[in-house]
Amino acid sequence: MEEDSFQRDPAAPGVELELIRADNPGPMTLQGTNTYVLRDGEQSWVVDPGPLDVPHLTAVIRACGPRPMGVLVTHRHDDHTAGAGTLRRQLQNRTGCEVRLWAADPRAVAGAQTPPSELISENGIVGHVIHLPGHTADSVGLLVEGGRMLTGDTLLGDGSSTVISPPDGSLTEHLQSLAVMRALATDGRISSLHPGHGSVAESPLEALEAIESMIAHREERIDQVRQARAAGALSMDRLLRAVYGEALDPGLRGAAEDSLRAVLDHISRTR
């Protein structure tokens, strides 16, 4: 088969993208987990099934249409993966189609396989799977036909910053992944950002601004930690007070500690 044989048929309709938000809001999930259904004619794919919640999975199944092809999880966390196995079985039972289940680390989701580099329909390429480690080592995104970038938790909506928990998470790799996304946006290949939690960045300019803002936030945090340590804040308690202040919500302390450990790990790697 020739190299360009999977290019999209210019006469084919575009890939549809539907957001179905799970009802699992919280400090880490914001308004809830964003599940995306891609449709190309009768064929469909699901990205991040979300929690094992019957009303949510029922809505996702209804959105898939007659020919579900695959389920892709962007990373290992339960708020994205818990419903994956049930969704796959229900789609197969309902339609009789063979539905693939993909995860960059197949050990993270029972029955999963390593994803292909591209999702392909009868009309050609639907999207490109891009490795974006940092939030977790197995994080991926999907650049959908037309420039819509599904980011998983690599970049959240509404200016929120994703938690990075070493050793699975790495701030060094996260910054590298953000740089990849910035290059794609600067090159005009990203038209909008569709995060795993939070609101969509609807335009190319909003997408680039969101990426640049997160890079600036991470660099500012690194500088804060460097300055705090230079001033003598060497214990975790003192670093937390220096960086986050005295009014840190106790419910967020664990996430804040993880983020500071990620910064310290990054500093030790990049001296």
Description:
- By secondary structure, the protein is α/β, with parallel strands linked by helices.
- The chain has a single domain, classed as Ribonuclease Z/Hydroxyacylglutathione hydrolase-like (Metallo-beta-lactamase, Chain A, 4-Layer Sandwich).
- It is built from seven helices and ten strands.
- It has helices at residues 54-64, 78-81, 84-95, 171-186, 204-230, 236-244, 253-269; strands at 16-21, 34-40, 43-47, 67-72, 100-102, 118-121, 124-131, 140-144, 148-152, 192-195.
- Strands 1-2-3-4-5 form a five-stranded mixed β-sheet, covered by helices on one side. Strands 6-7-8-9-10 form a five-stranded mixed β-sheet.
- Strand 3, helix 1 (54-64) and strand 4 form a beta-alpha-beta unit.
- Helix 5 packs across helix 7.
- The longest helix is centred in the last third of the chain and has 27 residues, at 204-230.
